Amino acid sequence: MNPFYEHRQVVTFADTNVVGNVYFTHYFEWQGRCRERFLADQAPEVLQELTRDLALVTADCACEFFAELYALDEVSIRMSLGGIEANRVTMEFHYYRLGAGPALLVARGRQTIACMRRDSGGALHPTEIPGPLRRALDPYRPVPAA
Q1: Closest Cα partner for 61 from 98, 38, 100, 34?
Q2: Is 32 helix (H, G, I), strand (E, B) or coil?
Q3: Measured between alpha carbons, how far is 146 from 142 in angstroms, rounded to an integer?
């Protein structure tokens, strides 16, 4: 199994700015899209809980940029588990341009989510990471250095 969950997509003209490259906010949207596809593919039970009282609240988000992406580029967004602490999960994202030759790392990001539950009044309270989410993330843990 890969040490990462992969989501691929083609950059659209709507993803680009007037200069022609991908506008930086789209990388954050793609983190969310990759995370949602991961949940649908690997932990659909969590999606069911999201329709009830579970909330996955983004607590932190960042991205570093190394190269540009343009319309019609194919991009591979590779998500891995950065860490788990209490009710928080940190995911790491690596964005690669695909095409002729080896994949090129164009950006690297991370996102930390907090697992929360809504009470009957709608207020959010920290909760433990749901078991199905923990199990789905387990194969994507960082490989310890030898």
Answers
A1: 34
A2: helix
A3: 12
User: What is the DSSP code string of 1-27?
Assistant: --SSEEEEEE--GGGB-TTSBBPTHHH
For position 142, what pLDDT does the model report?
A: 74
pTM value is 0.91
Question: Which residue's entry shows tokens 């960082």?
Answer: 142
Q: What is the pLDDT of residues 66-92, one digit of tens each?
A: 999 999 999 999 999 999 999 999 999
Q: Is residue 136 predicted with pLDDT exceeding 80?
A: yes
The residues, ordered by sequence, that sit 6+ positions from 127 with a Cβ below 8 Å of its Cβ are: 54, 87, 115, 116, 117
Query: Bigger pLDDT: 77 or 142?
Result: 77
- Joined tokens for residue 44: 């659909």
| Residue 122 CB burial class (10 angstroms; 0-12, 13-18, ≥19) | exposed
| Cα–Cα nearest to 28, from 61, 66, 76, 60 | 61
